[in-house]
Amino acid sequence: MKKALAMLLVGVLSLSMLTACGKKETTPELSQPVEETSVSEAEPEVQEPAVPEGMARSYLTGEWIDETIAAQRPFAVMLGNTKIATPQYGITDADIIYEAAVEGQETRLMAIFQDYANLEKVMSIRSCRHYYVHWALEFDAIYAHYGQAKYAVDLLNEDYVDNLSGLDGGVEKVMYHRDSNRKAPHNAYTDGEGIVAGIAYKGYRTQHEADYTGHYQFVEDDNTPLYLDNGQAAAVVEPGYLVNKPWFVYDSTTGLYKRFQNGEAQTDGNNGKQVEVKNIIIQICGWNRMSSEDEYLNMETMAGGSGYYVTNGAAVPITWKKDSLQSPTRYYDESGSEIRLNQGKTWVCVTEDTYADKIAFYASEEEYANR
Fold first, then answer.
1. Can you identify the CATH homologous superfamily of domain 55-369?
2. Where are the beta strands (DSSP E) in 243-286?
3. For the chain, domain boundaries
4. Do 266 and 86 touch, CB atoms closer than 8 A?
5. Peptide bond into 87 cis (omega under 30)
6. What is the band of 33 on the pLDDT scale with cuts at 50, 70, 90?
7. How far apart are CA 88 and CA 355, in angstroms?
8. 78 forms bridges with which residues in the sheet?
9. Is 66 exposed, middle or buried (0-12, 13-18, 19+ CB in 10 A)?
10. DSSP per-residue codes, 202-229
11. Does the first or last residue of the chain, that is N or C, have fewer Cβ atoms within 10 Å of its Cβ?
């Protein structure tokens, strides 16, 4: 009996030891520290912006457009801006507009279009000034004009300048027309069909080169516009021109600046709409007269200088430089970083340094009215 009991106790002890051994084998596996896996410590994955199918960013506005249109060279054209030349036609279709003084301190415009093949009417087309060619080259643009100042002739004849002159008989025939409702020289115009025909007649390259990288830097997030939090209030902007005395008024409901000059809204003869832009760049530029014998001006387009970037109701100081005739003008903030523009249309006001003191910003329309 005692022997049987002893054997039973030995069995129980053996079973207990086996069970204990089993627990010892499995416990470490169950107690592995979960937090030491790399899941919670992994770097967040960078999400690249989704590219809509068949679309690409416009080099002129930063917005998504048809990739075929985005790849083509833009079309730049000189437009008159005297009272008799207004309203301009097609101006609300322009992606970028340059404004600078010519002789007599009148301003002339250069409108740049990315998508030009279906333009209804572009008028009034005027003559070239050499400094506008400098700016057109910055965008790899095909440059259109009706005549030119004598100081632009040599530049226009350079192989790297693709120009469509109304004084070229073949180009004039396929591209330009006259509007009988206006007096010459303010009545020359073209349209999308004429532009395409003029480019084809001259055999100009229509696509950007494969290594083309564009001009402006844009905010890439479509839903997060740039606000100049440290900027000066700029509900109304005066760029400082003497004759047409233009100003821009910020519309907070659309986020755009409406353009006025000669005491009234600047509109498009095609559709009656007022010109509106997202960005204003004021580029203060040195200048001189080409000769004491005439009033033609020279803008020092490669000398560098100061200016302002204006968007979403505020303005900040900038500096600018241009390294070569065909390179883009680059704009920098006070920290020395190249500025980014909000997506949308841009108006570049090239203001002579002599009149920089006439540039003004107002916090409200009331303040502007009581200036």
1. YerB-like (3.50.90.10)
2. 247-251, 256-261, 264-265, 276-277, 279-285
3. 55-369
4. yes
5. yes
6. very low
7. 26
8. 110
9. middle
10. HT---B--TT---S--B---TT-----T
11. N
Indicate the SS3 state at residue 285.
strand
- Runs of H (alpha helix) within the chain: 2-30, 67-70, 130-137, 153-156, 169-175, 192-202, 365-369
Q: How is residue 303 written in tokens?
A: 């000398």
- N-to-C CA span, the chain: 120
Q: Is 232 in contact with 225 (CB distance < 8 Å)?
A: no
Structure tokens at 278: 């997202």
Q: Which sign, positive or negative, has the C-alpha torsion 213, 217, 218, 221?
A: positive
Q: Give alpha helix (H) positions in 78-191.
A: 130-137, 153-156, 169-175
| Residues whose CB falls within 8 Å of the CB of residue 131, separated by 6 or more in sequence, listed in order | 100, 297, 298, 299, 301
Whole-number pLDDT of residue 29: 42
Average pLDDT, the chain: 90
Q: Return the percent helix, strand and coil in the chain, to nearest 5.
A: 25, 30, 45
**pLDDT tens sequence across 183-221:** 999 999 999 999 999 999 999 999 999 999 999 999 998
pTM of the model: 0.87
Q: What is the DSSP letter of 197?
A: H
Question: Cβ neighbours of residue 147 under 8 Å, at least 6 residues apart?
Answer: 126, 127, 128, 165, 166, 167, 185
What digits encode the pLDDT tens for the residues 98-131? 999 999 999 999 999 999 999 999 999 999 999 9
Helix (H) or strand (E) holding 100, with range, is strand 96-101
pLDDT per residue as tens digits for the range 126-175: 999 999 999 999 999 999 999 999 999 999 999 999 999 999 999 999 99
Largest interatomic CA distance in the chain: 139
| Residue 133 CB-density burial (10 A; 0-12 exposed, 13-18 middle, 19+ buried) | buried
Residue 363: CB atoms within 10 Å: 14
- Report helix, strand or coil for 84: helix
Q: In this structure, are residues 320 and 332 in contact, taking their beta carbons and an 8 Å threshold? A: yes
